[in-house]
What we know:
Elements: H1 18-24, H2 33-42, H3 44-49, H4 54-60, H5 63-70, H6 73-91, H7 96-101, E1 109-112, H8 128-143, E2 147-152, E3 160-163, E4 169-172, E5 184-185, E6 195-200, E7 203-214, E8 217-223, H9 231-234, H10 245-265, E9 272-276, H11 282-295, H12 299-307, E10 310-313, E11 324-325, H13 327-338, H14 345-350, E12 363-364, H15 365-372, E13 375-378, H16 381-390, E14 406-407, H17 414-417, H18 420-430, H19 433-436, H20 441-445, H21 452-481, H22 485-491, E15 500-505, H23 521-528, E16 535-540, H24 548-561, E17 570-573, H25 578-587, E18 590-593, H26 605-611, E19 615-619, H27 622-627, E20 634-636, H28 645-669, H29 678-691, H30 697-740, E21 745-750, E22 762-770, E23 779-788, E24 794-801, E25 803-809, E26 812-820, E27 828-836, E28 851-852
Parallel strand pairs: 1-2, 1-9, 2-8, 9-10, 10-13, 13-14, 15-16, 15-18, 16-17, 18-19, 19-20
Antiparallel strand pairs: 3-4, 5-7, 6-7, 7-8, 11-12, 21-22, 22-26, 23-24, 23-27, 25-26, 27-28
Helix pairs in contact: 2-6, 8-30, 10-11, 11-12, 12-30, 21-25, 25-26
Amino acid sequence: xxxxxxxxxxxxxxxxxxxxxxxxxxxxxxxxxxxxxxxxxxxxxxxxxxxxxxxxxxxxxxxxxxxxxxxxxxxxxxxxxxxxxxxxxxxxxxxxxxxxxxxxxxxxxxxxxxxxxxxxxxxxxxxxxxxxxxxxxxxxxxxxxxxxxxxxxxxxxxxxxxxxxxxxxxxxxxxxxxxxxxxxxxxxxxxxxxxxxxxxxxxxxxxxxxxxxxxxxxxxxxxxxxxxxxxxxxxxxxxxxxxxxxxxxxxxxxxxxxxxxxxxxxxxxxxxxxxxxxxxxxxxxxxxxxxxxxxxxxxxxxxxxxxxxxxxxxxxxxxxxxxxxxxxxxxxxxxxxxxxxxxxxxxxxxxxxxxxxxxxxxxxxxxxxxxxxxxxxxxxxxxxxxxxxxxxxxxxxxxxxxxxxxxxxxxxxxxxxxxxxxxxxxxxxxxxxxxxxxxxxxxxxxxxxxxxxxxxxxxxxxxxxxxxxxxxxxxxxxxxxxxxxxxxxxxxxxxxxxxxxxxxxxxxxxxxxxxxxxxxxxxxxxxxxxxxxxxxxxxxxxxxxxxxxxxxxxxxxxxxxxxxxxxxxxxxxxxxxxxxxxxxxxxxxxxxxxxxxxxxxxxxxxxxxxxxxxxxxxxxxxxxxxxxxxxxxxxxxxxxxxxxxxxxxxxxxxxxxxxxxxxxxxxxxxxxxxxxxxxxxxxxxxxxxxxxxxxxxxxxxxxxxxxxxxxxxxxxxxxxxxxxxxxxxxxxxxxxxxxxxxxxxxxxxxxxxxxxxxxxxxxxxxxxxxxxxxxxxxxxxxxxxxxxxxxxxxxxxxxxxxxxxxxxxxxxxxxxxxxxxxxxxxxxxxxxxxxxxxxxxxxxxxxxxxxxx
Length: 853
């Protein structure tokens, strides 16, 4: 029976406790230990039952308990103190951004992502991408950035995982109750919801907008599950990464185009748009369309104006991980939309194709983003190399190392992941600045002053709590399965709170090789069941519902854990979530990560572990490739890659076992007379000192701000002057360049007698370049010089601009440069190249416009 009228029931808080409601609806509590302890103080058991959701807690708690708290002077004093800190935080006086740029009265930056991992009770994330997005918002809030987030509000979010009796992953989807979440509906002055219209499959759908306030940052989430939409459209925001490719393109149209329109509907007009992965790339098209309408621009002119404010981050080094849509699917959803751009349909589709002329190639969201964004980056140093290799064909003839995809290595938001005990330890020995300025290296050098016994006892307490949590979780799972009392009793004996504990928790994609450590069960048996030096392993993670090989990995772990010899030593924790993640990264001794290099883009879980003093054991992939030092943790292999993946598996499994047997286990159990593993503790301190200052999101967001946001803002302001006159001029110049580039020829190179030259001695290089109808001001003529390898290829090259020194007539121009070899002796070589040059170009590399001698 459906209701004929609905109303919202809200908790009746005593007047003295009204501040609790304000605190509950700002997600800053997710990384404020004092605020979390305040809500736990109301009812710690109910806090757990409510899934760490203060809004649900306040709506569920017994009224008598609220009245009791309202008359408890100690609780009220605690509340006043927390609220004062909260108000002071929101005022944001003297934030990092204010210090470098001044206070902004309006949002300047918008951050779009398909998922955001802010807290476990707001289930709109699936894994590392979402956790990174959530940490990005938190650090942006702490640093005072004038930024807004945009995403989707999923009715069911990502699935809940459970295993059947054979260990096969099953999925169930649980509806989010939006009215009991820390979010509010954005409304007009008359109280009606603010909505936006988006055309999907040739008809209009309507989305309403919810706000999740993340400290100082508003996160706007679109929701199509409203009566105005037919069932198929209501389901667009049903599940994260659910359904087929048609559902995926619907979600991405809503996110990119609908998200852009949502900001406009609320009167929010950011100047810089950051696309976190390709899911939101359609916003670039909507940005262009809007500029065409408001400024009466052509597509080419609007594209130049829009691109200055577009930033793109790619997270996926696996080709299959990028979104591709068929021409038929694009035609269904975009044929009418594309007609507004005034360009041919083939040209429109070419924006998302590596080869715009290949009509059989599908439309790729990553290609669209790379073509239109002025700044693009990968998420670790090695991932940058991989990404430039993956997408090199977009910039023909450009050397791989110069492909305009840089890298900004990911980080984590420390106060979201650190245990209370570690926070207190850091405050005691590092001072209070570590929270506000975690990217300052000198602060973390004070970790050396932490007494070894204090650091170790703190870590031991976290391991004990992790073991207790694991046992509770196992008992809950067993009860849900209807297990016997004997099985429930056995769960109390799982794991040893004093044993060396290895943690492996992440998405169960096959390239992450979760079962590498299980390759030789008999050898593993000897390692785990050594009576004097016991070892245990905790696994957690979800496989995508359609990833059968990933599910097989989980089943293998489950089956092995049920063998008598491993029953207390190997545990798989079902339904991996942020609560589980916190216990593991805070309580394990070793964090294991063994992806197949180079398929891990970053891998932030190891950073969370390192911040808690946990040591990393990983293949040299993702972040660990640039972080690893022998005194900080352990590397599986030396970064080798083999053509035969099976052989690589064998080699690295052997290396993993060797490290455990000969280094890791002996170091952990080598105790001094006071019972402390002094060498292990030294590694913990070194890891904290060397890793924490860099692998955090304050440093990461600071890099995005300095390298991308502010540069893009300056460039955007310049190109927008005088009714976008410079954008129009740049578009016209590019068109002229495109028509005439093929005429360019490098006619002659003069070097004189250059068979050999002494290091440091200067020599002259001259070139004659035929430019056709172009002028020297339109191009940059460069020397491209470096060592020459055995394959007669220039390596470790650098480019040097040549000066225009005159003309040889008939559109042939003279260029010259004086150069010297300052590096080591040996065979060197150079060539000449011509690139486009314009004061408003962000990158000199334009597709198809590079001429080599």
